[in-house]
Amino acid sequence: MTRFYAFNGDADGLCALQQLRLVETGDARLVTGVKRDIALLERVDAAAGDEVTVLDISLDRNRAALLRLLGSGASVRYFDHHYAGALPVHPRFEPHIEETGDVCTSVLVDRYLDGRHRAWAIVAAFGDGLPNVAKAMANSAGFDAPATATLETLGIGLNYNAYGDSISDLHVDPAELAREMRPFEDPLDFARRSPAYARLASGYDEDLRKARALVPTRQVPGATTLVLPNEPWARRAIGVLANELNQARPDNAIAILSPRARGGFVVSVRVPAGRSVSADAFCREFETGGGRKLAAGIDVLQDADVDSFVERFEARYRVRP
Description:
The protein is of the alpha/beta class. Helix content is about 40%, strand content about 15%. The chain starts with a strand and ends with a helix.
């Protein structure tokens, strides 16, 4: 029997994996990539009797590969909080999927494990743009203010590292990060001792200094659009910048467009709670769009479609006087 873990390379995927692997010892094959590398199950070659765990990637975007794996005789356990669509009914399929706006995949894994490694779930919640959830969990777990601040910095750094067109855009390959994280039950210890994390921290500071100097490209009441320059630092900074703008402008829908090295744009969208059109519903109007209710994106928006995207974004989220 071979065990596979297919996980998003961002903070949520990494911390979900870390929680499970602190409990589930033994060798396993890891399948991951940059944050936008969603179709990970296509790269899993499991056979009868194998076990596949999927972490933080949309079931809807991996449906065909999931059905292939179940048909091959593999068992699949699935943790996620993105739009899933209809769930398959199969004796070897174990879903742990919740699409509400106040959970991330690592919180679902934390519940599954009865809080055995909650500190890593707190890291993930900070990284996944759920600071209120993370702070409440940290407070209930007894972390003081300095420790909570370190968990927040770690989560944001792990999440930031996953954004890019390819692994070459990233400071650290997520698979390498997973290997460095694995021995650490305590994320505070990881933050103190990991060479990989030290690389992330210095790169993060430099990239965000540049990103925070940018100004919105377009702004109407209730909707802000920002187009980033075609640079690796901008591709890395897009997720953190989207979360920061979302927190600074909580009543605005935010759209950030980052040029892809191969043409077109990657889009990150943040939408305030209570809007009639959720972020994932809006992004699914586009061929490679998806995500969750408050935070979603489009993997490839062609250059010719940018004007149409901005018009539709502002039409959905403009606040009328």
